Amino acid sequence: MRAGVVKETAPGERRVALVPDAIARLRPAGIDVLVESGAGEGAWLTDAVYADAGAAIVSSAELYRTADVILTVTKPSATMVGQLKEGQAIVGMLAPLSDPELAAALAAKGVTAISLDGLPRTLSRTQPMDALSSQSNVAGYKAALVAATAFGRFFPMLITAAGTARPAKVLVLGAGVAGLQAIGTARRLGAVVSGYDVRPASKTEVESLGATFVELTSVGSAAGEGGYARELTADERQAQQDELAGHITRNDVVITTAQVPGRRPPLLVTEDAIKAMMPGSVIVDMGASALGGNVTGSRPGETIITGNGITIIGADNLPATVPTAASNAYSRNIAALLLHLTSDGALAIDTADEIQAGVVITHGGRVVHEGVAGLLGGLAAPAPGPPGEPQEDLVTGPQEDLFAEPQEDLFTESQAELPPTGGGAGVDGTSN
């Protein structure tokens, strides 16, 4: 079987799906590796290094013509989909819950789509394949550095001849993989750190990193089954926001980590909380997406400074800014999954397998993943709104400036609390 490593084309994407060290691990399973020329350049991996490791360096056209399996980091572009052919497979972070139409297009072409972000993360044997956790780990680390860079003062306490600088106060909302890494990194930078999560069990994890756990008296335990966070009721959400606002305003830096794959992230930092923060404060929203973010007014990939001097950073793809470390981790994940799917030198698709049931999205010309198929069914027959009433497009519609005009109350909508990352998470999701 020939596995082809493509050069990523998404704006700002510098990761690569497979690093040279993984090639020797795949060869005993009968997997030969083809690498598109220049695929590793963003992560400082040259074609020569891949060739020395045993890969064949090929053009993009040859890769799509001869590879049996295409390995990618992000979901394929329309151009990439056009180059795929019947019988091929594509493996990557395809985000099928956010873009079910892509799954439908791949199924129509007879392509087997395998998405690492569908991995059932409660199974201990999937930990080596868990790309959501590995990339969230990188993202949490970088989020703390981004915050420190944007903050106008020092993170640590410094005693100098010119005077003493007090340490920054940092609040991290979400104690999943990304949140815990952000807490640990901010602590190593010398900040005074606190963390919050809806699951009381995360208190031990937060405190083990030397941070203070924020306990809200207005919201009881939101722990669900299997370590996941349950969805809060509307009253609980409102109480949570009201009490959190007081903690937010007492901090210099706030890092939010909540994401819900395919759905609007829960709103954690309201406009009122932002207005009450001190000028110069920084918010890093790791949940920023086209669907919205954890912070009122945040936009993915943009930095906004409010009228009262608060910097809001929509950090939508932090792992790509640490490309070498992120690629090394992702490569181990995708190689482990590929080995699990391979038998006698070929893909052996069996959706009765627990792992495959989560990651195999399309096969045999059909969308076989129940969740994605359900979304496609809903898109085929959307529920109509009241006659004559315009419907808001939460995905493609323009975002207005939330600081210029009075805004609607975003808490009247149903918000989902985030499932955890493997190894203990809560508000923090981990598509990040």
Q: Which key terms come to mind for this protein?
A:
15% strand, disordered C terminus, 13 helices, 19 strands, alpha/beta, seven-stranded mixed beta sheet, 432 residues, single chain
In terms of topology, how is this protein built?
Elements: E1 2-5, H1 23-26, E2 32-36, H2 47-52, E3 56-58, H3 60-66, E4 69-71, H4 78-83, E5 89-92, H5 100-108, E6 112-115, H6 131-150, E7 158-160, E8 163-165, E9 169-173, H7 177-188, E10 192-196, H8 202-208, E11 212-213, H9 234-249, E12 253-256, H10 271-276, E13 282-285, E14 303-305, E15 311-314, H11 323-341, E16 342-343, E17 346-347, H12 354-359, E18 360-363, E19 366-367, H13 370-380
Parallel strand pairs: 1-2, 1-4, 2-3, 4-5, 5-6, 9-10, 9-12, 10-11, 12-13, 13-15
Antiparallel strand pairs: 6-18, 7-8, 14-15, 16-17, 18-19
Main β-sheet description: 8 strands, mixed
The percent of residues in helical segments reads 25-40%
Task: Please identify the structural class as seen in this structure.
Answer: alpha/beta
Number of strands: 19
Count of individual helical segments: 13
Radius of gyration: 22 Å
